[in-house]
Write a sequence for this structure.
């Protein structure tokens, strides 16, 4: 190894030939030989040291690469866990939806069965009532017929009694006439004959009077019988009228019952049709939900593949600016909030663009925005619809994940190659993309350049980089309030073993502490970390006003620093 080291460590062939041993037969000074051997040993030692240094550098590089791969593996495992959790959540939601549909279908089937049973019972009850009414109607008709026969018999009896009464009246009149004639004869006889008269004549008169009284009593009895017969006839007539009225009521009730049965039958048919339509709608909704779930999973998988392809093609490292890393996570977790944050950052393109630009951008799932870049100042404003091609330089359509890469890398060739951005309203789409520079993903730099970023969205992005393991054993909430014309307020809630959650600020007594600060102080706190040796601008004159538990605020500040640090420097 010494010979190899000596050979590799010699600076050139000329020096080696100069120091070559003399030919045999020549006398060489031992001191020269020792000096030569010492130089050879020194050169070999230097070569060994250089090789050792190179090996150490290679080892350090391999260690860094290994740490980077392990960190990336951890992130991939975390993303896979999140995807599996999201998939499990969607499967649970689908299972709950299927269960709800099954329960609703079962409930509707029970309701339909109850309705059918009630309708059947109503029909049976209506049939029984109709049968009872038919029986009552037959009885009423028979009673009416009997009443009619009774009335006819009573009328015949009345007529017979009237005839007998007439005969009795005739006989009575005849008897009265005879009595009068007898009394007249008796008076004449009494006037002409001896006092007391003829006994036979008096007997005749007495018998005539008795017969007359009997006749009068017979006539009175006949009149009483006639009156009773008339009263019975009137009662039978009233009973007949009542029977006819009852018969009419029974017929009316029977018609009403028939109408009710027909209505219930119609309602049952409508209920059955409605249930069948609802069941068909539920089946369609279930199919739509399954298709939507499949489409969402397909879109998510496609987006992940495109992001992975872009990351692998661009060689993107995990140690970029924290805002870019947070925006990537936020684009996967909350597309709506990430769209608002990323669109606001488009004004930062004016800091590096070489010419004025005026274009429309539409992020997938959001509204259209007009981006105007001129003289180092940029504006982004929402518009109702895309402007005509003659009024803009171009139109840009892309999703949130692609917008993150556009902001971080600009309109690079890799972004165009993977088709993550669609350019319209121009004949040179590649040139239009190349004109878009990257944005400084540093809130401090953007704030000093006049680019306003929503403070709540910035803190929301920062929480995306906080490791849930940091919150183990902690549970508290801190309220934040940013003053100024565009001020806002929010709450960061910490739950044991979960990532800090940013929500709307509610009752103050529920938070352990509150922080009130200016936009400049917040921008300085969220600025990209700088090395200690680099120049850092002076802190803002106004300091945050903190009330409550200072330890909770300090703990969140420490986690924020950890989240802002590069991936390799973040504690586990």
């Amino acid at each position: 190894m010494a010979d190899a080291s000596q050979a590799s460590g010699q600076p050139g062939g000329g020096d080696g030939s100069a120091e070559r041993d003399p030919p045999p037969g020549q006398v060489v000074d031992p001191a020269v030989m020792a000096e030569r051997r010492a130089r050879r040993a020194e050169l070999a030692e230097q070569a060994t040291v250089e090789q050792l240094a190179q090996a150490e550098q290679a080892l350090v590089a391999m260690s860094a690469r290994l740490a980077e791969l392990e960190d990336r593996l951890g992130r991939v495992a975390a993303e896979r866990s999140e995807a599996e959790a999201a998939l499990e959540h969607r499967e649970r939601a689908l299972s709950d939806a299927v269960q709800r549909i099954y329960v609703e279908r079962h409930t509707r089937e029970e309701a339909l069965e109850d309705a059918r049973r009630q309708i059947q019972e109503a029909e049976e009850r209506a049939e029984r009532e109709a049968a009872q009414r038919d029986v009552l109607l037959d009885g009423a008709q028979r009673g009416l017929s009997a009443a009619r026969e009774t009335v006819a018999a009573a009328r015949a009896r009345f007529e017979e009694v009237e005839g007998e009464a007439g005969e009795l009246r005739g006989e009575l009149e005849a008897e009265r006439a005879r009595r009068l004639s007898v009394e007249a004869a008796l008076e004449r006889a009494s006037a002409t004959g001896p006092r007391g008269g003829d006994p036979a004549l008096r007997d005749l008169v007495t018998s005539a009077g008795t017969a007359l009284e009997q006749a009068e009593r017979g006539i009175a009895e006949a009149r009483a019988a006639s009156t009773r017969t008339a009263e019975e006839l009137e009662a039978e007539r009233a009973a007949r009228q009542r029977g006819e009225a009852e018969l009419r009521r029974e017929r009316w009730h029977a018609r009403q019952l028939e109408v009710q049965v027909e209505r219930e039958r119609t309602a049952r048919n409508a209920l059955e049709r409605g249930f069948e339509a609802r069941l068909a709608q539920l089946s369609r909704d279930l199919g739509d939900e399954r298709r939507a779930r499949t489409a969402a999973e397909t879109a998510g998988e496609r987006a992940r593949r495109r992001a992975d392809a872009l990351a692998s093609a661009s060689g993107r490292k995990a140690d970029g600016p924290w805002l870019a890393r947070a925006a990537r996570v936020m684009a996967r977790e909350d597309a709506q909030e990430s769209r608002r944050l990323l669109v606001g950052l488009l004004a930062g393109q004016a800091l590096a663009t070489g010419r004025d630009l005026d274009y429309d951008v539409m992020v997938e799932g959001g509204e259209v925005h007009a981006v105007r870049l001129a003289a180092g100042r940029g504006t982004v404003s929402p518009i109702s619809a895309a402007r005509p091609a003659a009024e803009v330089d171009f139109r840009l359509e892309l999703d949130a994940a692609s917008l993150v890469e556009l902001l971080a890398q600009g309109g690079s060739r890799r972004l165009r190659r993977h088709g993550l951005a669609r350019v319209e309203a121009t004949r040179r789409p590649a040139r239009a993309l190349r004109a878009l520079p990257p944005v400084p993903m540093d809130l401090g730099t953007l704030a000093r350049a006049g680019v306003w970023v929503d403070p709540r969205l910035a803190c929301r992005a920062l929480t995306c980089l906080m490791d849930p393991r940091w919150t183990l054993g902690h549970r508290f909430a801190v309220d934040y309030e940013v003053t100024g014309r565009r001020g806002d307020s929010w709450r960061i809630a910490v739950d044991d073993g979960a990532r800090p959650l940013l929500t709307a600020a509610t009752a103050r007594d529920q938070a352990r502490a509150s922080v009130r600060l200016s936009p400049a102080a917040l921008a300085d706190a969220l600025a990209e970390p700088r090395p200690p040796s680099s120049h850092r601008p002076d802190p803002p004159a106004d300091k945050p006003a903190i009330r409550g538990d200072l330890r909770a605020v300090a703990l969140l500040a420490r986690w924020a620093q950890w989240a802002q640090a590069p991936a390799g420097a973040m504690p586990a």
